[in-house]
Amino acid sequence: MKAYLITIGDEILIGQIIDTNSAWMGQQLNLNGMQVAGITTAPDEEQGIRAALQEGLSKADAVLITGGLGPTKDDVTKKVLAGFTGGRLLFHEETYRSITRFFEQLGRKPTEAHRLQAYMPDNAQLLRNRMGTAPGMWFEHGGKVLVSMPGVPYEMKSLMKEEVLPRLKAQFPLRAIAHRTLLTSGTGESRIAERIADLEDTLPPHIKLAYLPNLGQVRLRLSGEGADLASLEQEVDSWAKRFRERLVDIVFGEGADRLQAAVGRLLQERGLFLATAESCTGGYVGHLITSVPGSSAYYTGGAVVYSNELKQKLLGVSPQTLSQHGAVSEEVVREMVAGTIEHIGGQVAIAISGIAGPGGGTPDKPVGTIWLAVGNRQVTEALLLRAGKDREKNIQYTGAHALHLLRQFLLRHYPQ
Amino acid sequence: MKAYLITIGDEILIGQIIDTNSAWMGQQLNLNGMQVAGITTAPDEEQGIRAALQEGLSKADAVLITGGLGPTKDDVTKKVLAGFTGGRLLFHEETYRSITRFFEQLGRKPTEAHRLQAYMPDNAQLLRNRMGTAPGMWFEHGGKVLVSMPGVPYEMKSLMKEEVLPRLKAQFPLRAIAHRTLLTSGTGESRIAERIADLEDTLPPHIKLAYLPNLGQVRLRLSGEGADLASLEQEVDSWAKRFRERLVDIVFGEGADRLQAAVGRLLQERGLFLATAESCTGGYVGHLITSVPGSSAYYTGGAVVYSNELKQKLLGVSPQTLSQHGAVSEEVVREMVAGTIEHIGGQVAIAISGIAGPGGGTPDKPVGTIWLAVGNRQVTEALLLRAGKDREKNIQYTGAHALHLLRQFLLRHYPQ
């Protein structure tokens, strides 16, 4: 069974918002054994939407549409869908009641624009939207299915999980498809390819390997297709195991795992608390760590010491070290680690000081010069990163490396 | 002149990475008066790529392709492009030298996979890639243009700016198109629509208004099309001015501005320094603020006080207040503001304490209960947010609201 994804919105074509819905939908469809034949973005006007619908129906069994259902005037989707499938828009009492109820719960009254939202195609099955006011719509059309959902990500996700995926699974017989993804940090794509070249060459044709690099991490995805799901999964699993054994030093997890979660598990298993001291990353590493639910079990907190005064005041970094070596130096990040354990708490600390850019560089220490340190009361290890010129990318790259460094430190100094 | 964007990669179809390139390319093309007719994602295999190329050429004058040029084995793009345009792959000495040089600079040797990267279609003009090893390719095909670029965002961006956009502008005559975007915070889409309904109804047909809501902010985009660029821009500008005047209390900026930058300008103009105290947001607000270049001119730093001990130790929050009202309370965030100004520094402070979820909720204080406070030495204002159940979204939503609250505080208490 093949699906085709259409995102409607001029705001995507002109680049004002990024289409994150398609990625999430692609993941969910794949997990459920459905293949995505294509993804396309159509403008907010009739002709473009019709062309995308034609294209989707020529390539797939189900066309899933997001966007173009909001309460404001830039939306034409519903009219086009009704016309395309031979229906017409009628005022739908139940939808209007549900809109009214939704606003009553918020202590507000619906507007006239919300009233217009209650006009629905008379040939669509309406799908209940638990997270917002616009219901989903399910059309049967020439043996195929058209589904329309709001573009707001959490509304779309709720509709997909509760309504759309169960209906698709009931309507279409599925092919067997299996994925496994190994997550690595700290080694580049080409070096990894060299280390596994011989294994890769012996992969059977129905199992493919893809390299997905991103900011200091590379994901290795094995995808298999076959007749029988159970035996296919076993086969892909056994290949994943072989690749993982080969790359045991750099694989930190699988699937949708994240390095910050992997590091969190290491800390928690060892009964350690972490504290952070960030200068140029401004809180980003704390944010990464605390984006993991339950991180309070191993994260004390930290200091964002953006100014030199604060490095002294909160962490006790010595003014001599700062003036002699500069804030971006190995000596300062080492003192920051010691000061963090002393004044903030925790058994293990990360410290970061660098020049994120675009300003602040010198010939000696150009933009992208970043010192990292990870340590405990006994030992501190420091690392000099030479990142690029882009502030945002430097911050992200530094965050990923800080977590990588922390993981290596924990594995070396706290072996299980 | 119309462009069509193709992203190549199974990893996008199965949702393992999000296509951010297309959004950036759409922005740049629009800024240069070129329209994006569609965006599509094709799988890593010949048939799918060929179909996307056909589709693109039927809809646009230039087809811009990203992805499928890396050094590993999952790439077929180059072969398909050569075949499609009637060329063949030949070893390209100069490209190989540039790859070798690139690795020499890193103190490493190219691998065999990198050598394969030096095979290039003999009918393509090669575009210099300053940020990586894979050059871009420019094909002329039946009066139209096909361009292939690597998928790594900073390589693609560099190629677009330095090579592709200048060539496209030289080759195609441009239509006049003008955009203006007003950025608002703190008010929902429907309420904004009500406040500007009469203005919106008098917009001429060649100027459109779109509402782009996202996590507590709504962008209002005016797009005009016309014959003469100068008069069109003047017309769109004058409409933007009318909408901005109507919404003066909630518009914080225009275009690609960000709330954290707008707040930064207010602080800097007033000679104020900000400090932050974050519990449930774990450093995210500090990260937002320091994502703006030059933020050290108005941001001192802050404390990530994830544990209750740290709220006492770093900020002097009283143990009585914590035990009497709980860490997530108006009383605690008020003491956090006072303690931040006292112990961290700055004239203005933000404090945040809440339950980001998914765990940690109680009947009294369910997940999504978040207290915010902004204050100076004289006055502190607190706000209770009732966010949702999703941790990541709660953190982002809280960050956006904290900045909104700070902006309102600055405008009220430090009028220019």
UniProtKB/TrEMBL annotation, chains A, B:
Belongs to the CinA family. Residues 4-171 form the MoaB/Mog domain. Gene3D superfamilies: 3.30.70.2860, CinA-like, MoaB/Mog-like domain. HAMAP family: CinA_B. InterPro entries: CinA, CinA-like_C, CinA_C, CinA_KH, Competence-induced_CinA, MoaB/Mog-like_dom_sf, MoaB/Mog_dom. It comes from Phaeodactylibacter luteus. This is CinA-like protein. SMART domains: MoCF_biosynth. Signal peptide: none annotated. NCBIfam families: cinA_nterm (TIGR00200), molyb_syn (TIGR00177), PncC_domain (TIGR00199), PRK00549.1 (NF001813).
